[in-house]
Amino acid sequence: MNKLTSPPNPSADHADDYCGTTYAAKLLGLSVGSIQHLVEQGELAGWKTQGGHRRISLSSVRAYQVKHNIKNTTQKTAPDKRLRVLLVEDDTLTREMLQQYMDNTSPSIDCTAVSSGLEALMEISNIKPHLMISDLKMPGIDGFELLRTLRQNPQFKGMKILALSALNSDEIESRGGLPINVIYKSKPVKADWFDGFFLGLSIDLTGS
């Protein structure tokens, strides 16, 4: 199978036809580096988005599973029922820690992490996340502007948003506050809080 440099169908309506590198690694029980190598060798079909994030064709992943008799490590959750998460965090250490947490929490979470509000706006229509986790204080397009922009877009009306920040309530109000239906949690956030958050997260994936 030849590797791809652009998606076979870039329409956002087909977000379930592909996944991120981390989720593909979960499906095949391989490392992220191995997935990237398989794409480079043409064993898996993949491409990069405008923001430089790799996307992997799910059909090529399934074909690889069959070819190499690999058991689906996420068989309890079908690929098109995965929880798509967009993580927006400019601090490298925090971003990597949160992504690693989600990667280890459940094989059904497909998390894409970006470092700025601009990257989030570039990626979000392709990812169509069920949940966006965003920092508020970021350079350029900060979390406040990002959240307000997305809440004004009917396309993301049903998307759940979790805002994380070290800003106190007065500082947040001084910046205009948060849009409605945004969950707020003060940093630092402990892992057990996230455990409860994801356990109680109710998202109708069939209607997304």
Automatic annotation (TrEMBL):
GO terms for molecular function: DNA binding. Keywords: Phosphoprotein. PROSITE patterns: RESPONSE_REGULATORY (PS50110). SMART domains: REC (SM00448). Residues 84-202 form the Response regulatory domain. This is Response regulator. InterPro entries: Bact_response_regulator, CheY-like_superfamily, HTH_17, Sig_transdc_resp-reg_receiver, SinI_DNA-bd. GO terms for biological process: phosphorelay signal transduction system. It comes from Limnohabitans radicicola. SUPFAM superfamilies: CheY-like (SSF52172). The modification 4-aspartylphosphate is found at D135.
